[in-house]
Write a structure and sequence with these properties.
The protein is α+β, with helices and mostly antiparallel strands. The protein contains 4 helices and 9 strands, in the order ααβββββββαββα. It has one domain.
Length: 158
């Protein structure tokens, strides 16, 4: 095989990238996991970080969404929610993970009540217990609900 043929094979887009128009990049922390860009968070001045999402589990109307960023902030975790419960009236569980190399003290879960969700929506950083501070932007949660609570497309055959 010629050098040119090998170079073309290496540079060819993957099947996942061809099938998913929202494909952005491969996860930095999980092997072979395609991620979708959810939100770019501006951190002040010239700094920003991009948040990526991928549905990890679907069980009826319940979703677990894997989230990560690896730019100015390093963060990985899961958002657990129920698509049947309206936005703003539900309880959300968020698990921060040490996959991004964070100390294990951040392996923690937080169940957000309606009051905490309202504070989170208004931009407050939620610190429920020592060693756990929710830095995940509310917008990532909303976009995750939008992306992964839509009905699956139905394919018709003739």
């Amino acid at each position: 095989m010629s050098f040119l043929a090998v170079a073309i094979l290496v540079m060819a887009p993957s099947d996942v990238a061809a099938e998913d128009p929202n494909f952005e990049y491969w996860s930095e922390f999980r092997d072979a996991l395609p991620m979708t860009k959810a939100y770019t968070e501006y951190l002040g001045g010239p700094y920003f970080t991009t948040w990526y999402i991928q549905v990890e589990q679907r069980s009826g109307t319940k979703r677990s969404v894997y989230v990560e960023t690896n730019e100015k902030i390093q963060w990985t975790g899961l958002i657990h929610f129920d698509c049947d419960i309206s936005l703003g009236g539900e309880q959300v569980s968020i698990t921060q993970s040490s996959e991004a190399g964070l100390p294990t003290v951040y392996d923690s879960s937080l169940l957000l009540s309606e009051t905490l969700i309202q504070q989170w929506k208004n931009g407050a950083e939620i610190a429920e217990n020592e060693g756990f501070s929710l830095t995940l932007p509310y917008e990532v949660y909303v976009i995750s609900r939008y992306e992964f609570c839509r009905p699956e497309p139905v394919e018709y055959s003739e």
